[in-house]
Every structure is written in structure tokens, then in C-alpha cells.
Amino acid sequence: MTQDEMAEKIVEVDARSKSNKHRLDKVEERQGNLEQLTNAFTKMETEQSYIKKDVGEIKADVKCLAEKPAKRWESVVSTAITVITGAVIGYLLSGGGF
Asked: Number of structural domains, the chain?
């Protein structure tokens, strides 16, 4: 191999080396972006689990609040029935029969 051929090969190898360095730089940049994306997804997953827990608590609170009026209504009806029944029995016992 002559010196000119060797010089030509060195130029080719140098050009290929620069091309490979450029490609590796892009791969490293993409790898960094991928790591950032993975970290973001991990954070979102953690936040989603907290949101899921909070929504569960909110649903339980809403269910409890929705049951309160029904319980109050049942209490009012029960009290009204008791008062009416007591009044009828009192009327009957006082000799006011039918």
C-alpha cells in the first residue's frame, strides 16, 4: 500500500468516525429523552394512584351524604306513625270509641 492509498484510507476512516460520533450523539440525546419520559410516566402513575384513592374517599362521602336525607325521612315517617298511633290509642282509651 502506498502512502497516498494510506492517506486516502485514513481520510475515509476519519470521515466514518465523525459520522459515527454524530450518530452516537443523537442516540445519547434520544436515550436522555426516553429517561425523562419514563420519569414523567412514573410520576403520573404515582399521582394517578393518589387521585384514585381520593376519588374513592369522595365517593364514600357522597354516598354517606346521599343516605342522610333518606334516614331523616324514615325517622320523620316513623315518628309520625308513632304519634298517630298514640293519638288513636289515646282516643280509644279515653272512651271515644267508634
From this structure: 1
- The DSSP output letter for 38 is H
- CA 22, distance to chain mean position in Å, is 41
Instruction: Note whether residue 29 is domain-resident.
Output: no
44-77 pLDDT tens trace: 999 999 999 999 999 998 888 887 887 788 888 8
All 3 cell numbers of residue 68?
342522610
Whole-Å CA distances, 58 to 40, 51, 55: 26, 10, 5
Q: How many CB atoms neighbour CB 70 within 10 A?
A: 9
For residue 32, which amino acid is it?
A: G
Residue 55 covered by a domain: yes
Q: ∠22-23-24 over CA atoms, to 5°?
A: 90
